[in-house]
Amino acid sequence: MSKLETNTIDTISGSTNLTLGGTNATDITIPSGVTITNNGTQSGFGGTNTPAFEAYKDGASQSLSDDVWTKMTLPSETYDTDNAFDSSTNYRFTPQTAGKYFFYAKSKLQVSTYNDLRHGFVKFYKNGSAVNITEVSFAPYGDTTGGTLVSPFTSAVIDMNGSTDYVEAYIRIDGLNSTNLSAEYNLFGGYKIIE
Question: Which of 11, 53, 62, 69 has the fewest CB atoms lying closer than 10 Å?
C-alpha cells in the first residue's frame, strides 16, 4: 500500500469533475475523529423523508353514523411531495416507493347533545385491512347544554411495498345518541423513514 500526503487535490484545467477511486475501488474509509466539512452542494448522502404528505378537512363537518367505521374525508393537502395522496375521491396514500412509513391521523368527533358520546376511534387500514387503532373515552365537561366531543390521535409505522400498497384513515363514534354525529378537522399524514 502506498501513501499520498498532500493539502489540496484539484482537477486539471478545463475539467470540472474529480473522481476518487476507479474500477478497483469499492470503499473509501474516513478514519474516526475526522470531520467532513461541506461548503457546497451535496448529493447521494443520507436520505430524504419522501414521499411525504399531509391532507386535511377544515372546519366543515363530515357526517357519521353511530358505530360505523367511516373513511376520513380529506379534500385538501398541506403538501404532497410525490402526488401519492388521492384527495379527490379515494382519500388514500399510495407511496410508489417501498419502505417503512410513519403515519399519523386525528379528528374532532362530536355529538350534538351533552354526555351522549362514549368513545371515539381513529384507525389505519392498509389495503383494506385494519393495522392500528386508537380509542378515546369521553369524560363529561363544561356546560351541560352543549354537545360532547373527543379528539382521538393515532400513529403507526407501516411497511409499504410501493406501487400497490395503500393506507387510509378511518374514524368511528360510539354514542348514546345515534343522530347528529360528526367529525371536524380531520388530519392524515405520513412520510418515508430513512433506513
Answer: 11
